[in-house]
Amino acid sequence: MNRPRTRIQQKNSETILDAALDVFSAKGFRGATLDQIAEVAGLSKPNLLYYFPSKEAMHSALLENLLDTWLDPLRAMDPSGDPITEIMGYVRRKLEISRDYPRESRLFANEILQGAPHMRAAIETDLRALVAEKTTVLQAWMDAGKIAPMPPVHLIFSIWALTQHYADFDTQVRAVLGPDHDPFTEADTFLQLLFRRLLHVADT
After folding, report:
1. From the UniProt annotation, which stretches of this protein bind DNA (predicted)?
2. Using CA of residue 49, residue 54, residue 56, residue 60, what is the dihedral sign?
């Protein structure tokens, strides 16, 4: 029977995972080292290994809850709600994740760029099933003439691309905009306009 962790042990574990998130999101799994994580955490390498036996264990711990962070905004899309309101709410929630969880977004992006070696099973089951469920909802709204017709899965892909860009390419975005711009306020305004026009059913 495992003993519950003390407050200090819990704090150290959280410090290590926070440092690992910094390193993994910047360098990817392959580029990250235990020495780098230890330095960011301000702990010795043996101390790291007391809590997590390997770099893989830290990476797995971070990825465990990551997919839920990604799935929850799409899960919240209500089939019984107003289609435009529900889709625009999804766009806003995804942009907020890029703003509030940029390291997690980059961790996810790095994992995908490396072929999703640690998340492929979850992507091919949980994520695929949820996207299939929501594309059915989107298609029903299109068939009812409530939103403009388009390939529903590519609508979801475009929302991912246009919202996650602001986290995954944060350095480029801020370099282009300059220090006086809040990219997320401007992005929210633009994306709301863009997708509302895309979804609008033209008068016949």
Report:
1. 33-52
2. negative
Convert the pLDDT of each residue in 146-177 to its tens digit: 999 999 999 999 999 999 999 999 999 999 99
Residue 26 within any structural domain of the chain:
yes
pLDDT at residue 3 is higher than 80? no
Query: Residue 139 in contact with residue 79, Cβ under 8 Å?
Result: no
Total Cβ atoms within 10 A of residue 129: 11
CATH code for the domain in which residue 194 is found = 1.10.357.10
User: 95 and 34: one domain?
Assistant: no
CA pseudo-torsion sign 170, 175, 178, 179: positive
pTM: 0.86
Count of structural domains within the chain: 2
Are the beta carbons of 37 and 20 closer than 8 angstroms?
yes
Residues 72 and 130 in one domain: yes
